[in-house]
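=== Structure Prediction Worksheet ===
Name of assembly: unnamed complex
Input type: mixed (protein and possibly other molecules)
Chain count: two
Listed entries:
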Amino acid sequence: MACIVMKFGGTSVADLDRIRNVAQRVKREVDAGNQVAVVVSAMSGVTNQLVKYCTDLDPLHDAREYDAVVATGEQVTSGLLAIELQRLGYNARSWQGWQIPIQTDDAFGKARIDGIDGSALKTSLDAGEIAVVAGFQGIAPGNRVATLGRGGSDTSAVALAAALKAERCDIYTDVDGVYTTDPRIVPKARKLAKISYEEMLELASVGAKVLQTRSVELAMNEGVRVQVLSSFQDIPGTMVVDEDEIVEKQNVSGVAYSRDDAKMTVRRVKDRPGIAATIFGALAEANVNVDMIVQNVGADGTTDMTFTVGKADLPRAHAALAGIKADIGYTDLLEDTDVAKISVVGVGMRSHAGIANTMFRALADKGINIQVISTSEIKVSVLIAAEYTELAVRALHTAYGLDAA
Amino acid sequence: MACIVMKFGGTSVADLDRIRNVAQRVKREVDAGNQVAVVVSAMSGVTNQLVKYCTDLDPLHDAREYDAVVATGEQVTSGLLAIELQRLGYNARSWQGWQIPIQTDDAFGKARIDGIDGSALKTSLDAGEIAVVAGFQGIAPGNRVATLGRGGSDTSAVALAAALKAERCDIYTDVDGVYTTDPRIVPKARKLAKISYEEMLELASVGAKVLQTRSVELAMNEGVRVQVLSSFQDIPGTMVVDEDEIVEKQNVSGVAYSRDDAKMTVRRVKDRPGIAATIFGALAEANVNVDMIVQNVGADGTTDMTFTVGKADLPRAHAALAGIKADIGYTDLLEDTDVAKISVVGVGMRSHAGIANTMFRALADKGINIQVISTSEIKVSVLIAAEYTELAVRALHTAYGLDAA
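=== Predicted Assembly ===
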């Protein structure tokens, strides 16, 4: 008997009618002879309301209390879906993170799953029960509720699938799969039947918000076959699988964009050994994630250091750099939030030269200036002025032959 | 250092402003040098919404899932109050029922507290933390969340006060104490400075919904001093204490009424030994609580049996009696929902004759017909037509000399 994990996001359980619809989907998998564990998010809007309560009381609220408050949204949905499945005549029960237990670390608000003891769940499934699991949460050392950060229910689902050695982890959402790019920008975008973990990871990290990045990492490490598909339409989705399973490897599988970054430039900093370590050490200490980095070679014993940080981190980054001004002696601190990061991703890049050059030429042909470049093994990203975002995405989608016929 | 338990109901934590107000009340007790555990209800309206979700999906929902869903309301409030107390500069943390743990039986939806292990809480209090406890809930055998029934947070608070050997359990609510009767009916009703457990119990059981009945029982058994007082006004409330603490014992302390009962009459049932056992056995099996009972002596080998049940139990009571009709052979089953139960309560009754007679005369003077009478050691209750409720309450309040000067 195959075990399947199904995960439904907030819009898929937004009201009682949608919860009834989810129950029908679950019923179908059970009727087909599968053991099923379902992971649910909070009804859409609920988490935002709970977060607002915490933030309105105190913007600097204790993350442990925040977690105790916001984790309740998923608990409600799991109980409601269990009630509906029982009404349909199935054995079902809800599970909260601490009941399983899903053990996390103590990074409250964005905890990582340390391990899942799947034995109680397995016993329940073997007894013919449908397990309805509250996503997004676990139990941290000290018996406190911890949440996994936005999109954390994806990670709950993948981790459960790994613990239960499930055949598949189906992520039901409001899009029907992973596309070559955002179909709202490029109507000719195509849905991918398959995508590799590595590609999905790169896409997730640059703004294709279909799956939480951490869930893809976990799926890759644990070899969990993930399917992204629609809650509302009855059509095949996209399988996220090992690269070996993909026969026709595209040079570029997708084009992604993100407007979540800001560019900072530290002007005319002293060009001496250790200067980068000082700057990025200070930023790391302020808990600021730095993404793209460029250093110009200077002429007069100074240099310019340019990098990107998340827009939300900008005030903290600014404060951190102001704090070391005396030490590194820059003249200006330039900030630009009017930028977009455009990325092309594909495992085929490994064996094909010229991928980056196709990108640069396509952008140049449209008169788009590249501000910063960064590359990984299967990704090339550029920073451009935000106003060119759509133009750049369309040009690249065409340049790499991704447009649907 | 004295330990105090404070409990705030749903209207007292209805929104963020009221939660801020509650935090100020807590602050005052802490600043006075007390260890404080606070028990909170769900923000008003939240529990009703959660109950409605469950009922809309399935009127016959699983009580275990219902409990998992509705218990979240209190969890939210406890986290929010902890955040606000921390903002004010105090150490505070939230506790859910399973974290303490508050152990209950498995009567989901209306569970009873079996025991509280107060050691973790005590350690936290001794370390200078304010404990903010989610009321209304505990953990049942099998690691499932259980709720204590409507008003259950009162019982949570009293049980915690007993476990912590607290000096006092302050129940903050939207009324400012216990009155001689409902002030909406009798403007001359007086607030009682003190009332005995026994009296409070009788009042709670006949419709004075200030405290959950079970919480008063528990307070009496454990000797917990309970104070009922206003969340919104800064005035003394009513102390619920042992009878010995009350010097001036009134013959009658209060007049209560309830419109929650229905009268049933089983007409011309065979008058033979065991007939009562058959009738009330069938009702007990159907889980129907019976309150007042009268049996007429019959003349022709039959008798009429009259009793009251909760209005909500009427359909079940009817079905149970229909099921034994062949056995007991009645001619009619009469039902009347248009009745009210009026009760006078006072520990002074024990040593004073004539209390009941005063009641009967006062009602007769107003032309009010008594349908059923029942008495306990400190209570006399009568069933009358519902339309006379206010008239009866006012007449009795005056007859027993309870009107304020």
